[in-house]
Amino acid sequence: MTDTSTTNARQLSDLEVRAEKERVKRNWLLSMPAMILLLLGASGPLLIVLVYSFMTPGDYSGVIWTPTVKAWFQIFFTVDIFDDTVRLADAHLTIFGRSLRLSLLTTLLTLIFGLPTAYFIATRPGRQRTLWLFLITIPFWTNLLIRTFAILEVIRNEGLINNFLRWLGVIDEPIQILYTDTAVLIGMAYVYLPLMVLPLYAAIDRFDFRLVEAGYDLYANRWQVLRRVILPIVKPGIIAGSILVFVPSLGAYVTPRVLGGGKNMMIGNFIELQFGQGRNWPLGSSLSILLLLVVAVALLFYVRAANRGGSDE
Amino acid sequence: MSDEVAVRAEGVSKVFGSPGNELRALDDVTVDIRRNEFFTLLGPSGCGKTTLLRLIAGFETPSAGAIMLDGKDITVDPPFKRPINTVFQSYALFPHLTVGQNVGFGLEMMGRSNSEIDDTVEKMLALVQMEAMRNRLPTQLSGGQQQRVALARALAPQPSVLLLDEPLSALDLKLRKQMQIELKRMQMETGITFIFVTHDQEEALTMSDRIGVMSAGNILQIGSPREIYNSPQNRFVASFIGESNFLEGTASGTGAKRRVALADGHSFEALVADESVSDGKVTVAVRPEFVQVVAADTADALPATVTNIVYFGTDMHCYMSLNSGTEVVARVSADADRGGALETGAKVGITFAPDGPRIVGD
Fold this sequence. Notes:
The complex is a heterodimer.
Chain A: H1 2-52, E1 56-57, E2 63-64, H2 70-76, E3 77-79, E4 86-88, H3 90-122, H4 126-137, H5 144-155, H6 160-168, H7 181-206, H8 210-217, H9 222-250, H10 254-259, H11 267-275, H12 281-310
Antiparallel strand pairs in A: 1-2, 3-4
Chain B: E1 5-16, E2 23-34, E3 38-42, H1 49-57, E4 64-69, E5 72-73, E6 84-87, H2 99-109, H3 114-127, H4 143-155, E7 161-165, H5 173-190, E8 193-198, H6 201-207, E9 210-215, E10 218-223, H7 225-230, H8 235-240, E11 245-252, E12 257-261, E13 267-272, E14 280-286, E15 291-294, E16 302-311, E17 315-322, E18 327-333, E19 347-352, E20 358-360
Parallel strand pairs in B: 3-8, 3-9, 6-7, 7-8, 13-20
Antiparallel strand pairs in B: 1-2, 1-4, 4-5, 9-10, 11-12, 11-14, 12-13, 14-20, 15-19, 16-17, 16-19, 17-18
């Protein structure tokens, strides 16, 4: 009796081991196309960029295959051409600062506009919700360049805002919005708003509104219910939306180029410059890798924050 | 319990939906709930009992009428300004806060000091026997434990009225019985007015000081469990609480007792709750335990034929049909039929216990 049952158990576990091996093999095969694509499309080029960042710039473009860390040094420091003194690269740091500042502000701005929007959509009855979500995603279907030029049309000196204000008689001279940081900010907030609204909507949609009633019932006023009940529970959505906006904002290229003019560069434009007129591919490569690292750190922060929200003791 | 009124709903109506597609959840409801009493709103789902509770809590505003608390009109006060707390059907515990933080939430919002909050939380958790769970999150608790925390959270701010919206419906039978007794104990210990909503008649009968039976947006009858069970005023109350046989007949006479004649000429006496009821066609309700099965030749007995017998151990249900075809169920003691004379097809007589049959409104 005992013997048969143990033999049975052994046979079964053998079977299970075989089934498990079979499953692992199948999973590998299934993920193969994606793996190949990732290797060729993402990891490969990335590796090339990494290698380029440690090379010497060619005279007209490209690289000379002489290894050096000069590009990485150049990101932060400049060497005076006359007396060889090393100074911080102010111009570069200004660009980094602007990129960081504008990206954070964009995130904040989309959050401020996105939260009420997402709340509004999530509290509509079923069919209306689909319509509102559809409207939010419409800009996604339009080319980024066209959307950016649309914003340009609104804010330029002879644009919608200035013409309207002049018609009202509020101003005599047009307000210069275009080609300022404000213009870049407006453009990016407009472009990335859907990326904030969608995860916020998902979080608020999951939110149990009976908790709001419970909050009111326990003497919390509207502000306290928002701060103590709603915000802590939809926090994962806020973090997800913020990352989704912050990451592409940091690498934004088209928007600052069109709305910021030539002067108000962000990292994306600066990188492009190195591969174009700058003819310093290694510097562009090292900047790209640096940008990637910053984004990776931001994502790591998100993953950790999301985990903490999920299984807090 | 005192005779002072704690909560008064005065001619309250609530209409949901848009014009043309209206749903009248409450229709001109007036009810007084006394201080320190355990009052139950009992009715089937959709009868408006939860709506009335939500109006008292302040989650909804009545379409007409007024809600008064201790004589003060609170009809338009937001929930956070009413000294009324709710135990929600789904518990609605804050998932991001620990048990202790949940229980202390109300006091914190009222701006009480940390030491006071700490003491009260300790005391409330002791009251519901959950001291050991203070630092757990709601997701780490069983349904019964969440229920206790929800109760402690609602009691912590010491409200003058506690509303309970079917709080036991998600618990299994054994836990439910236990919580029924505990709820009653807590109500007596705290001296807080409890307004309890349920569709479970047994729950209502065991716990309440008074019950308001609701149907289709109206309160049909208010009374102690005994009054409700023994003298239902209308057909709905008689059938919703306990079991009842209904007989159609023609009443004659005056006073508290009338003679009711069935279509086949046989007649019996029935009590009438409202003496002003005019004679004529009436409905009579009789509880199965007030129906007696006697020999067919007994004087004044209604002739009937046994159609089925269901045995329950201590007693049995005897299903019979009258000449008119009306079904009548009698609950008879199994002892009474030791000879085994009751069997399907047997011709028997039916009499009623004195004060058993009652004329009810429709």
